[in-house]
Amino acid sequence: MEMMPTIFFFFLQLLFFSSSNAAVQDFCVGDLTGPEGPAGYSCKKPAIVTVDDFVFSGLGKAGNTSNIIRAAVTPAFSAQFPGLNGLGLSIARLDLAVEGVIPLHTHPGGSELLVVVQGTICAGFISSSANTVYFKTLKKGDIMVFPQGLLHFQINGGGIPAIGFVSFSSPSPGLQITAFALFANNLPSELVEKTTFLDDAQVKKLKAVLGGTG
């Protein structure tokens, strides 16, 4: 029994030593001159970090919606906003012209939260377990969440341009647009047809529209 106080005191000393010598790092501003790995970017040296690393001014201007989807996404991810590196969050601006659409897509690296600030946006996602669809037309001030990795979409739901801001639970959430993954690459058309049940004419038409080959 006499050993118990000694052992307890030893562990208290060990805990104090470990905690007092642990390095506390307030932030890890991304060094964009190097590659981005699974854990993000390497940290810039503190001596060259400035306040501008923690400020991003790119979301005040509308994105260019003169494209096939009549929509634009302006990201503020760690690649554009290095102060986010390692902090587990990011943001982007959505601009949807009339009839604009953000097609079905996924973010493998993070969940998404949308807030509508102008117009209306019909948004929804599809569950992976039962392919249940959850969608609703959102108006100004409404918020909707899209769980990580699930297919989801946003469509302009009215007669005026719509604007939304989306936050993510990752500084680099990733993006894969389903239509582009299928039809904007060089996967042979016959394989696309077998995996999508579309006929040859439909596949070739979509490849021509989206820039795919094969």
From TrEMBL:
It comes from the Eukaryota. Residues 57-204 form the Cupin type-1 domain. InterPro entries: Cupin_1, Germin, Germin_Mn-BS, RmlC-like_jellyroll, RmlC_Cupin_sf. SUPFAM superfamilies: RmlC-like cupins (SSF51182). Mn(2+) binds at H105, H107, E112, H152. Oxalate binds at H107, E112. Disulfide bonds join C28-C43. Keywords: Apoplast, Disulfide bond, Manganese, Metal-binding, Secreted, Signal. It is found in: Secreted, Extracellular space, Apoplast. One of its GO terms (cellular component) is apoplast. GO terms for molecular function: manganese ion binding. Residues 1-22 form the signal peptide. Belongs to the germin family. PANTHER family: GERMIN-LIKE PROTEIN SUBFAMILY 3 MEMBER 3. This is Germin-like protein. The lineage of its organism: Eukaryota, Viridiplantae, Streptophyta, Embryophyta, Tracheophyta. The gene is glp.
